[in-house]
Amino acid sequence: MNKPKLSRRRMILAFAIAIIADGLQYPITAATATGILALPGEAADFALDCFVMILTSWLLGFHWVLLPSLIAELVPGLDLLPTWTGCVALVVWQRQKEQKPPAPTIIDVETVPQQPPPLPPSRQVQNTPKAPDSSPPK
């Protein structure tokens, strides 16, 4: 599966879905604790977790961290932890690290000073000694 380009919109949507899913875990767990709604509650919990995993994979691209998060959501009581939010945070961090452009390569070049080429004879300055000044000192 190709990894989609990580945009700000995709990150916000993935975080929103994860936060909503983690928030919905509380009433579903409360419904399963009553006994009457235990089986339908567990089925709804599992369907929600599968839906969140599919949407997160579609938005951010599949990542291996999604599988342990799905398995952790199947454990009663452990599903009350914000595992989807933590999973999305980790995947976003990893994807941003992967998409960051590599640091530029610094090439250290040693320069050797060189003498400028000699001027042609017509442009050379003559270094002739000046005649001593014959004026009397003041």
Short description:
The protein is mostly helical and 138 residues long.
Radius of gyration: 37 Å
Strand content: under 5%
Low-confidence spans = none
Mean pLDDT: 83
General form:
rod-shaped
Q: Say how many strands there are.
A: 0
What helical percentage do the residues reach?
Answer: 40-55%
Question: Distance between the terminal alpha carbons, to the nearest Å?
Answer: 97 Å
- SS field, number of helical segments: 4
Backbone structural class: mainly alpha
Q: Main β-sheet, in a few words? A: none
| Helix-strand string | HHHH
Written overview of the protein:
- Helices cover 54% and strands 0% of the residues.
- It has a domain at 17-99.
- The chain contains four helices and no strands.
- The model has no long low-confidence stretch (mean pLDDT 83).
- It has helices at residues 8-33, 38-60, 66-74, 83-99.
- The termini are far apart.
- By secondary structure, the protein is an all-alpha fold.
Main features:
138 residues; 4 helices; 0% strand; mainly alpha
Summarize the helices and strands and which ones pair or pack.
Blueprint: H1 8-33, H2 38-60, H3 66-74, H4 83-99
Helix pairs in contact: 1-2, 1-4, 2-3, 2-4, 3-4
